TrEMBL record:
<dbReference type="InterPro" id="IPR005946">
    <property type="entry name" value="Rib-P_diPkinase"/>
</dbReference>
<dbReference type="GO" id="GO:0002189">
    <property type="term" value="C:ribose phosphate diphosphokinase complex"/>
</dbReference>
<feature type="domain" description="Ribose-phosphate pyrophosphokinase N-terminal">
    <location>
        <begin position="30"/>
        <end position="147"/>
    </location>
</feature>
<comment type="similarity">
    <text>Belongs to the ribose-phosphate pyrophosphokinase family.</text>
</comment>
<dbReference type="GO" id="GO:0000287">
    <property type="term" value="F:magnesium ion binding"/>
</dbReference>
<protein>
    <recommendedName>
        <fullName>Ribose-phosphate pyrophosphokinase N-terminal domain-containing protein</fullName>
    </recommendedName>
</protein>
<dbReference type="InterPro" id="IPR029099">
    <property type="entry name" value="Pribosyltran_N"/>
</dbReference>
<feature type="region of interest" description="Disordered">
    <location>
        <begin position="1"/>
        <end position="24"/>
    </location>
</feature>
<dbReference type="GO" id="GO:0006164">
    <property type="term" value="P:purine nucleotide biosynthetic process"/>
</dbReference>
<dbReference type="GO" id="GO:0005737">
    <property type="term" value="C:cytoplasm"/>
</dbReference>
<keyword id="KW-0545">Nucleotide biosynthesis</keyword>
<dbReference type="GO" id="GO:0006015">
    <property type="term" value="P:5-phosphoribose 1-diphosphate biosynthetic process"/>
</dbReference>
<dbReference type="Pfam" id="PF13793">
    <property type="entry name" value="Pribosyltran_N"/>
</dbReference>
<dbReference type="InterPro" id="IPR029057">
    <property type="entry name" value="PRTase-like"/>
</dbReference>
């Protein structure tokens, strides 16, 4: 592996994660790209229904992603999942493809729902074709996001 970046959250089986103090703790799980680790921690502190999941964002020697959702794969069934994404290329530690790979994988763990929060839609400046041959990249990215597999419960949004 060339490089890895782990979010600081603990896995559900580790002792460093505070256990639920009431029955609703952990009804929702937040995953994020490395850029939003701090925001995810703040959201978990503000709303006790949230627990932060842990992802290792690595890459193989050839540069392709080597990503791992730690332990949470066994604990996502029936949970509401939020993914904080960043597609700002100049400020992003994690490639769009890597993040899409996680988004597309989460529903296979029988999650109840997946909400993708993308604060900035980078291709929004190219939403229409003004001359022949131009590509509306906003539409392409919107179609890719819309193709996120549906979840066991309410789907993806």
């Amino acid at each position: 592996m060339d490089s890895t970046h782990e979010s600081p959250a603990a896995s559900p089986s580790s002792g460093s994660l505070r256990r639920p103090s009431h029955s609703h703790r952990g009804d929702k799980v937040i995953f994020c790209c490395p850029e939003f680790d701090e925001l995810a921690r703040e959201l978990c502190a503000m709303d006790k229904q949230f627990l932060q999941g842990k992802i290792t964002w690595g890459s193989f020697e050839d540069g392709f992603p080597n990503i791992n959702i730690h332990d949470w794969a066994n604990h996502l069934r029936g949970k509401h999942v939020v993914f904080l994404a960043s597609f700002m290329l100049e400020h992003s530690e994690t490639a769009i493809f890597d993040q899409l790979s996680v988004m597309y994988s989460i529903p296979k763990y029988l999650t109840k729902s997946l909400t993708i929060l993308l604060p900035y839609f980078p291709t929004g400046t190219m939403e229409r074709i003004e001359q022949e041959g131009q590509i509306a990249t906003a539409k392409t990215l919107a179609q890719i996001l819309s193709a996120t597999p549906e979840c066991h419960g309410t789907g993806s949004r």
